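Example record for the data management plan.
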Amino acid sequence: MSKEIRRYLRIVLPLAILLYLIPTITIVFVVCGLLDLARHHKVTTDLAKKYFMGNGLPTWLLSPFNLLLDLISFRNKYVYRLEDFPDAERAEIEWVLKTFDDNKDEIVGDIRKQMDGKKRGMLFYKWYDKNTNDTVPAFNEDYTYIKTIGVSVFNQKESTSLHFGPLRLTLRVLYNLTPIQSDNIFIEVDGKKHFWHDDPLFIFDDTIQHRSINEEDHERYCVFVDVLRPSSFPGLQNVLMKAIQVVFLKFNGIFYKNWSFLK
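Corresponding structural encoding:
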């Protein structure tokens, strides 16, 4: 039996059993998954395979919750600019990015010392509202909208495969601390490339399929921030954040299993 057939059977057989035992719930998950997948600009067989049978499986399982989040949030732009955020939320983002600019040399220098022999590194100052590193006190402040603050690092010629983020409660803010003039360093979201030398800031819905590429002989340092999606209900969003915080604190290693956690 080929590997491809075994992959199909791992999804088809459980689905068949679930359709027999709990048909309504199973149909809801299938429909939600299809609606979630349809948000992509071009739905291909390969995209569907990755979503339903590959690294998109957690996103599929969370699709009913993510679609409910869509109902309490403003229209999803998928890719955002700072001016798309309400003033108070934009102010928090700008303050955190300014803090990174003001402390860039120290942050990059400290991380570089820890990257020897590592392919990808992740340093978190705040993870889903919980402070995890106090070397930059400003990152340990209480924020209304910002939930995760960190830095992701790629060593030379290191990239990710196409993948999906799991949760649509937040948006991902990336800010390249060391952009260079090269088309070989970029992020690709839903088939469209963003080159860091054009703009070091990129904000997007990371439940859309994406990948980060570094094909240069240079390390790539990117600020990594999760911020609540613009919504008329930030209070409810923060309640939901508290509810899921324990799960994400406990299982963050699952989502970043190919990364080295830095201190």
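Summary line stored alongside the record: The radius of gyration is 19 Å.
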